[in-house]
Amino acid sequence: MSQLSTLSDAELVQRCREGNTDAWNELVERFSRYVYAVCTRGYRLSEEDADDVFQEVFTRVFTHLDTLRNDAALRPWIAQLTRRLCLDSITKRGREQATEEPMAEELAADLAEIDEAFTVREALATLSDTCQEMLDRFFARDQSYRTISDELDLPSGTVASRIARCLSKLRTELEGRNEGPRGSRG
Amino acid sequence: MTTYDDERIGELLRVLPPAPEGWVRAAQELPAARRSLDEIVARAEADLAFRQALVADLESALQLEGYEPDRRVVDELKRRFSES
Q1: Does residue B70 register a pLDDT over 80?
Q2: Most exposed: A49, A135, B36, B79, by fewest CB within 10 Å?
Q3: Is B27 exposed, middle or buried (0-12, 13-18, 19+ CB in 10 A)?
Q4: Is B66 part of the contact surface with chain A (CB cutoff 8 Å)?
Q5: pLDDT (0 to 100) of residue B32
Q6: What is the pLDDT of residues A46-103, one digit of tens each?
Q7: What is the mean pLDDT of residues B78-84?
Q8: Domains of chain B: which residue ranges?
Q9: What is the DSSP string of A113-142?
């Protein structure tokens, strides 16, 4: 786990403002999945349009970071920016060319799930590197036990038991967050 | 209060697959692209011949001077030159 990955959003923004390139890399890494999911899973943009929106979101974040009044509000700012740019993209393309423009209710449900998923990933980021890698490979990257076993040179049984153990740790972390406010990255 | 079981956690982890590596890399290279852009603009303002070459054929002029013609830099330069 890199030192930067443990910084809060506000601390990360501060470092980015100071011109710290590693902090910028971490900011992009932290929000890239979220922006990607909103574009493709939420608004169902084509890969080409999603790529354009993705780059535009981070360009605007980079350019306007100084105007962010509350550094801790980075996530809602990026969320709002991404949604607005997705809508602009759909409008620009024209209704007939938009790829299955989602219905409002369906869109709201998808965006809510993406937000919830981001919270789970924030909790995941507090676990060990091993747990992060195991759960990310198995769930987010959809790798099989066999692939993980081959790539990490571990017996399949070890992979399975580590995934189970890490899931349990993640559940505990999430339940802890539910019980009350505590220091998190956000 | 939200409760999570392993199945739900797994579902939510699947909601956020990694973005394509090339997209992430391009976004991470923004500060360098921005520095490159500022450098080109400053040079164009100070060097009339370079500016004329850029206006005539942007991509070729950039390549000739050893700049990597990044799409975003090129687009931004086109925008700036069309405004000036």
Answers
A1: no
A2: B79
A3: buried
A4: no
A5: 84
A6: 999 999 999 999 999 998 998 888 888 999 999 999 999 999 999 988 755 545 566 7
A7: 75
A8: 39-84
A9: HHHHHHHHHHHHTTS-HHHHHHHIIIIIS-
* Torsion, CA B56, CA B58, CA B64, CA B65, rounded to 10: 110
Share of chain A above pLDDT 70, in %: 90
* pLDDT (tens digit per residue) in A59-73: 999 989 988 888 889
pLDDT at position B2 is 72
B3 touches chain A (CB under 8 A): yes
Of A24, A27, A31, A32, which to mutate for an interface test with B (greatest number of B Cβ within 10 Å)? A32
DSSP at A103: P
Q: Residue written as tokens 């009044």?
A: A69
Domains observed in chain A: 1-118 (1.10.1740.10), 127-181 (1.10.10.10)
